[in-house]
Amino acid sequence: MSLIKMPMPEQGVNADLLSQLRDVVGDGGVLAGDDVAGRSCDPFRQVTIEGGVILRPADTAQLSRVMALCSEFCQRVVVHGGRTGVCGGAYAGPRDLVVSLERMSQIREISTVSQLAVVEAGVTVQALQEAAADQDLFYPIDLGSKGTATIGGTIATNAGGNRVLRWGMTRQNLLGVEVVLADGTVVSNMNRLVKNNMGYDLKQLFTGCEGTLGIVTAAVLRLVPKPVSQNVAFVAVESHEKLLVLLNRARRLPTLSAFEVMWPDYYNLVVNSGTGRDPIPSGSAAYVLIETMGYSQKYDDQIFEEFLIDAHEDGVVVDVVIATSGKQIEDLWRVRESAEIIVQELSPFVSFDISLEVADIESFLHLNLKELESRYPQTRTASFGHIGDNNIHLAVHVGPHTLREERAIEACVFSTLRQFNGAITAEHGIGQFKKEFLPQHKSAQEMTVMHTIRKALDPQGLLNPDVLL
């Protein structure tokens, strides 16, 4: 996709303000021209930063001064982390100043006694995982984009990932945060205690707010002991009923960390991609990657093997492949994490990240496909997800004109979802793309409270102004 012609910096940001901002962050803290044109607001397509300026504060003090100046000049700000979000949360228009936290990337502390990490917002998830692993600790939030996704971004969106079933979403792994408000005020809530009941839990206010209430600059995160065992199996089931039986049996495993389901539309796409990712023959109703992570290799292996043997002997699963090496574990996970194959084989497509009760998932998928096909006979889908925590992902292709029909496709899917009281986003967020649908899935009273909170913390509407509400 060709780049949109970028306006000169002074067209998007007041020249006097830009001069003062440069004094705050230094020449190295301001990007313009080709340094901006080469970046995208979207991980899957080239979307230009139209304002033409990226500001990169080096620390919280600089960011505080930046926001105080932006407040004085009524300057709109769009915050960038790793720019891995798929809901348009990082999209920046011609009037927007982009503030990137990429220079705020220090891991300040890994405590083995308290089992916590103190990190700046620009640290990537993978960098934290690796630093924790060096101390025999583990940060359980795990995303396909972990090499790029930042801690600040995952807090802003309350990211989940593959192991929510065991360790919860970002919210459950967060102890404290430091935040800069729209007027430059620094709110330090860097709590290090698991039990702290002193008034409002402010960190939760900023978790999942998508940068609309404040900019997270640092965080205290819970860590857990690094697991010493990892068992992974790839299985096939012949019906939705058997899938639910398998899930309930898997939930009894004390070390269950992932239960990833792939329906035939997704699995067949991957198997036929020519990448060799075909551990089990096609033809089943669903395919499941099951993972356990524990602290006793001998007993964890035994329990996992007994679980699979029982499931097979009882007819719950019809085919089983067990990983016997780290390479095989990686290969099986690559079947589940095949986003690039969806992009290759199904583009253009509209992606969904939805949540609904486990018992309703099969009915929803059936009705949703029926509704889409009634409007678009060429409909193709790819369905997969973490059903143990209610979350499924869906890619929809209706032909070469798919992107022109994006809003109509979303309206169709969300209308079906509403019949099952589902959520239009489970972990990706609302961003700019889904905000028009939010009032249909939230009560008027909820929307009023959300607007009230946002107005109280950002009365001028400067922070990520086109996001969420």
Instruction: Kindly report how far apart the N and C termini lie.
Output: 29 Å
Low-confidence stretches: 1-10
Shape descriptor: globular
Numbering strands along the chain, what is their spatial order in the largest sheet?
15-12-14-13-17-18-16
- The number of strands is 18
Q: How many strands, which pairing sense, and closed or not: the largest β-sheet?
A: 7 strands, antiparallel
Treating each run of at least 4 consecutive H or I residues as one helix, how many helices?
16
Over all CA atoms, what is the radius of gyration? 23 Å
Structural class: alpha+beta
Q: Which quaternary structure do these chains form? A: single chain
State the helicity in percent bands. Answer: 25-40%
Question: In words, what does this structure look like?
Answer:
- The protein has 469 residues and is an alpha+beta fold.
- It is 33% helix and 20% strand.
- It is built from 16 helices and 18 strands.
- The chain has helices at residues 9-12, 15-25, 34-37, 60-72, 125-133, 151-157, 164-167, 202-206, 240-250, 264-271, 297-313, 326-336, 339-346, 361-375, 406-418, 444-457, and strands at residues 30-32, 53-55, 77-80, 97-100, 107-111, 116-120, 137-138, 174-180, 186-189, 215-222, 224-225, 229-237, 256-262, 286-294, 319-322, 350-355, 380-386, 391-397.
- The strands form 4 sheets. It has a 7-stranded antiparallel sheet, with helices on both faces. Strands 5-6-10-8-9 form a 5-stranded antiparallel sheet.
- Strand 17 and strand 18 (391-397) form a beta hairpin.
- It starts with 8 loop residues before the first helix and ends in a 12-residue tail after the last helix.
- Mean pLDDT is 94; it is low at 1-10.
